[in-house]
Design brief:
single chain; 266 residues; alpha/beta; Rossmann fold; 7-stranded mixed sheet; 42% helix; methyltransferase; S-adenosylmethionine-dependent methyltransferase activity; SAM-dependent_MTases_sf; Class I SAM-dependent methyltransferase; Methyltransf_11
Length: 266
């Protein structure tokens, strides 16, 4: 499996997205309707935002977490102190588990970075027992992430490469209304339900927002790494101006919406 997500450093990812996925995880767990005694698979665990939120749920029997990135797996393993939690490196499109191993398979902010997202959903269904649940959540890049759209719209106004970035970013897989739900239905899941989950991303100042992107983390950071020094300086100044919006640098807050879908394995 390939992934369109770009990661250099686990701490950089935490500043870029990990701290926000930690806020989203409890809402997603409630939507997935976790029950006591279950065996849960976390597909694409990253640094462990969902994994360790699951570990706070009373009486779960077992939590297995996998990720394609060895950087993420190493970081999550360093954090782990719970004997119920097992973390390994694996491909979401070829899960190394027998059929029906788990009660639920969950994916937090993963499927939109998997080019063969439907295949990943099929694999999640395969490893969940009949009557179990498959659930996933992805950001709505087009209409639900104003803080990130601020950056991509700014660079789109600066260059053709910026316009190409915006097109890729806004129309990644599984992000349009009903798209992930349809993928679940196509993979044979039953009683498929879609909803929206919302958190706020609160930044202390422009550097808190911009530092991980400028350092090359994530898909927006990957774009920044392609720019020469003059274009980087021009982009830094333009995005700062958009962030400040004519006011002094300081705290800013953005509401962010994600699509969440769950279905039952027949």
């Amino acid at each position: 499996m390939t992934s369109s997500f770009n990661v250099h450093d686990a701490s950089g990812y935490e500043q870029l997205m990990g701290r926000w996925s930690q806020k989203l995880a409890p809402l997603f767990i409630a939507f997935a309707e976790i029950a006591s005694g279950e065996k849960i698979l976390d597909v694409g665990c990253g640094t462990g935002s969902l994994t360790f939120a699951l570990a706070k749920v009373p009486d779960l029997a077992e939590i297995t977490a996998i990720d394609f990135s060895p950087i993420f797996v190493e970081a999550a393993r360093r954090r782990n102190t719970d004997p119920r939690v097992k973390i390994g490196e694996a491909d979401a499109c070829a899960l190394p588990f027998d059929d029906g191993t788990f009660d639920r398979a969950l994916a937090l902010l993963v499927l939109h970075f998997v080019p063969e997202a439907g295949k990943a959903v099929a694999e999640m269904r395969r490893v969940v027992r009949p009557g179990g649940v498959v659930a996933a959540v992805v950001w709505d890049h087009l209409g639900g992430m104003p803080g990130m759209r601020m950056m991509v719209d700014t660079v789109a106004a600066l260059s053709e490469s910026g316009r190409q970035l915006r097109s890729r970013y806004c129309f990644q897989p599984m992000m349009q209304p009903g798209e992930m739900k349809q993928a679940f239905v196509e993979q044979g899941l039953a009683d498929v339900t879609e909803t929206e989950l919302m958190i706020r991303m609160n930044y202390r100042n422009f550097d808190d927002y911009w530092a991980p992107i400028s350092a090359g983390e994530g898909p927006l950071g990957k774009y920044m790494a392609t720019l020469d020094a003059a274009e980087r300086a021009r982009t830094d100044a333009a995005v700062r101006d958009a962030y400040e919006a004519g006011w002094p640098d300081g705290p800013r807050s953005f509401a962010n919406v994600a699509w969440a879908v769950r279905g039952i394995v027949p």
